[in-house]
Design goal:
about 400 residues; Serine Threonine Protein Phosphatase 5, Tetratricopeptide repeat; 14 helices; about 0% strand; STI1_HS-bd; repeat; TPR_rpt; STI1 domain-containing protein; TPR repeat
């Protein structure tokens, strides 16, 4: 029996076997399960490696179709989520769950002088515990002080600082936010809340609070914390500005495209109008003027064009052009009739003469207006509501 494999295939098989001898754990790869089953059927023992070595080369891919490149890389960047930005996360901690036992006091309570004195005593005692590292006791004492004097911003700031030492940034944020509601100029409130945001990797809020703390009352520690969060905050800000810029550019491009299409449509409509006027060359002579070509030139008047930008006007004239008899539907519409009067006056001023010597629109108006009407009051040769003649003589 001759070997059914080519020399090249045999060389590849030999290279694979040699590699398996050096790295037997490769047999554990799912792609080689068929080979593993075969070896086990022969009684072989397969090493069960916990993890594959990082230096195992990737299996070469043959005849693999190339991945199509994205048509618009810039548009892909528009959807780049903020979470894909790389930040220095050193020092960040897992968020804490704010306890329902966090005492906030009775906001409606008006503390007496005695309450204020007792609260101050509790605060002094709490600061002593804080300096000795007994942060839990400090929190408990300040909670008692807050019950006595819930109107003191200092008490909430101090307890927020204690929570910060206990790695409870959300509890700190809650206390400092309350302190800032009581005293919007509390530099310490902004400082410790900014630090809490930093621990939660909320870089922008951290930078805003720490910047405000330094603005109210410059503090070296707050400034140091601000410098620490600024690089990450700037990355987010620049990312947002980039997305806003791309969004604006996209909107401008879309707007320009709409304008271009509108201009093309307008040019096509004008060209079609001129073609229609040319096809009526054998029609009636409008006082020796250029005929319907002049009529369409008058339609290019800026005032007339502005009027036709009104959807209601455009729809009405399209309706009339399809069936001149529909004119009667718009005789009570002052907007439509005002434009008709304007057009009629322009025709009369152009020196055009129409059949029968009547001023007004030519019978060749797109769709076939009647033999002529002079302004908003007349339709054909009769008054308002007169039925248009069946034959205007322009066919």
């Amino acid at each position: 029996m001759s070997c059914p494999f080519s020399q090249d295939s045999l060389e590849k098989l030999k290279a694979f076997i040699d590699f398996c001898v050096q790295k037997p754990e490769i047999i554990q790869l799912p792609e080689l399960s068929f080979f593993k089953i075969y070896l086990e059927s022969l009684g072989a023992t397969i090493p069960r490696g916990e993890s594959m070595s990082s230096d195992i080369p990737e299996t070469p891919q043959t005849n693999k179709p190339e991945e199509p490149e994205p048509e618009n890389v810039e548009e892909q960047g528009e959807s780049e989520p903020e979470s894909e930005l790389e930040f220095d996360m050193e020092g960040c901690i897992e968020p804490d769950v704010v306890s329902s036992d966090q005492v906030m006091g009775d906001a409606s309570k008006v503390p007496t002088e005695e309450d204020t004195d007792k609260a101050d005593e509790k605060r002094i005692e709490a600061m002593s515990e804080f300096s000795e590292g007994n942060y839990e006791k400090s929190v408990a004492l300040l909670s008692d002080a807050i019950v006595l004097n819930p109107a003191s911003a200092v008490l909430f700031v101090k307890r927020g600082q204690s929570y910060l030492k206990l790695n409870k940034p959300n509890a700190c944020i809650k206390d400092c936010t309350q302190a800032l509601e009581l005293n919007p100029d509390s530099a310490a409130g902004y400082k410790f809340r900014g630090r809490a945001y930093r621990l939660l990797a909320d870089w922008e809020k951290a930078a805003q609070d720490l910047r405000q703390a330094c603005k109210i009352d410059f503090d070296e520690q707050a400034d140091e914390w601000l410098k620490e969060v600024t690089p990450n905050a700037q990355k987010i800000e620049q990312h947002r500005l980039k997305q806003e810029r791309k969004k604006t550019e996209k909107e401008l491009k879309e707007r320009a495209e709409r304008v271009r299409k509108a201009r093309e449509a307008h040019a096509k409509a004008a060209a079609a109008g001129e073609a229609d006027s040319g096809s009526d060359a054998g029609g009636p002579d409008f006082g020796g003027a250029a005929g319907m070509g002049d009529f369409y030139k008058l339609l290019q008047d800026p005032e007339v064009m502005a009027a036709f930008k009104d959807p209601e006007v455009a729809a009405a004239f399209q309706d009339i052009s399809m069936n001149p008899a529909n004119f009667v539907k718009y005789q009570s519409n002052p907007k439509i009739m005002a434009l008709i009067s304007k057009l009629s006056s322009k025709f009369q001023g152009s020196g055009m003469g129409f059949p029968g010597g009547m001023g007004g629109f030519p019978g060749g108006f797109p769709g076939g207006f009647p033999g002529g009407f002079s302004g908003a009051a007349d339709f054909g040769t009769g008054g308002a509501g007169t039925k248009p003649p069946e034959d205007d003589g322009l066919d």
